[in-house]
Design brief:
By secondary structure, the protein is α/β, with parallel strands linked by helices. The chain is built from 12 helices and 10 strands. Strands 4-5-6-7-8-9-10 form a 7-stranded parallel β-sheet. A 3-stranded antiparallel β-sheet has the order 1-2-3. Helix 2 packs antiparallel against helix 3. The longest helix has 19 residues, at 97-115. The chain is globular and about 60 Å long. The two termini are 36 Å apart. The structure holds magnesium ion. Magnesium ion (MG) is lined by residues 190, 192, 218-219, 243, 265, 294.
Length: 318
């Protein structure tokens, strides 16, 4: 199965409500779609969203990296030389993790088709079902409480509540949400780097003292501040999950060696695809650090790839 053509396209999907975090506000999904065509007629699909505020990858950068570097490196290659082709994608250009992720997932799609095995089974096959949550955007407390109630009515039993924008409001936000939905729904929160380390400890312990029952907190401090992350992890009663601090497998290993977080969020767009995501999962198995699979305003193709990963490994529990 040889790769004969790399085609790119774009999708634009308006959101019903804006997606708002401490880092950005977005009104639509604007993703790049990759098709890898082969001499057997099989087509592999991939997808990448531009997330300049997080990965630095814009639409133009994703398209340019694929057209000018990745496509030239893999055209004519045999999918059956699987690991070598996956490594070529990672090595042919530095950074550009979103472009790499889009092509990587399309290659896994082809490899699964080649051997007629679902990709989650190729990667481990741990489970056939997963539990997901829904994100409540950061807004004034009353609006978030209303959004949370609507999500619970739609059947969600786990909510991810965005905080970290105007941190002085965060305890009020969580209090309003918890009062509105009662104590049966699980709440996890995501500060998206919006707090300083000491502020994070103070806010998290206030939330704990108020009995708001937070399952864990994502990325309380700046992505590069590994020492600050460790500071929070050691002093907060709420478990800490590293998200923006962990892009590569090397980042994950450093965070785990330092004991800087209790949990790690794996996202295909940060680590460059399933090949590297599996390395993070393996490191996490060694350190006993449970993982979550996240995504960044992605549509069906890349979320589907992420679900295959979540179904593949036992260490992915969130
Ligand atoms: Mg996050």
């Amino acid at each position: 199965m040889k790769i004969t053509e790399v085609k790119l396209g774009r999708i634009s999907v308006p959101l019903r409500v804006p997606f708002k975090t401490a880092l950005r506000s977005v009104n639509s999904v604007e993703d790049v779609i990759v098709e890898l065509h082969t001499d057997t007629g099989a087509v592999g699909y991939g997808e990448a969203p531009p997330t300049g505020a997080i990965t630095g990858d814009t639409t133009g950068a994703i398209v340019g990296a694929i057209q000018d570097h990745i496509a030239k490196s893999i055209l004519g290659r045999d999918v059956d030389d699987f690991e070598d082709v996956l490594q070529t994608v990672q090595k042919c250009i530095v950074k550009n993790s979103s472009a790499k992720a889009a092509v990587d997932m399309a290659l896994w799609d082809l490899y699964g088709q080649l051997y007629k095995i679902p990709v989650y089974k190729l990667m481990g096959g741990a489970r056939k079902q997963i539990v997901t949550d829904i994100t409540i955007s950061v807004n004034p407390p009353e609006e978030m409480a209303r959004d949370a109630v609507n999500a619970v009515k739609r059947g969600y039993d786990t909510l991810k509540i965005k905080v970290g924008a105007n941190p002085e409001l965060d305890v009020a936000r969580l209090t309003a949400v918890r009062q509105a939905i009662g104590d049966k729904t699980r709440i996890r929160i995501d500060a998206n780097q919006g707090w300083e380390p000491k502020q994070a400890v103070r806010l998290l312990n206030q939330m704990q003292d108020k009995g708001l029952d937070i399952e864990f907190v994502e990325q309380p401090v700046k992505a590069h501040d590994f020492a600050g992350l460790k500071y929070v992890t050691e002093r907060s009663y709420v478990p800490v999950l590293a998200d923006e601090s962990v892009f590569s497998p090397e980042d994950a290993l450093t965070i785990m060696q330092m004991g800087a977080a209790d949990l790690v969020n794996i996202k295909l767009m940060k680590c460059g695809g399933l090949y590297n995501a599996l390395k993070i999962a393996s490191a996490a198995e060694v350190y006993g650090v449970e993982c979550m699979i996240g995504c960044m305003l992605e549509a069906k193709i890349s979320v589907n790839a992420a679900v295959h990963l979540a179904c593949a490994k036992k260490i992915i529990t969130k």
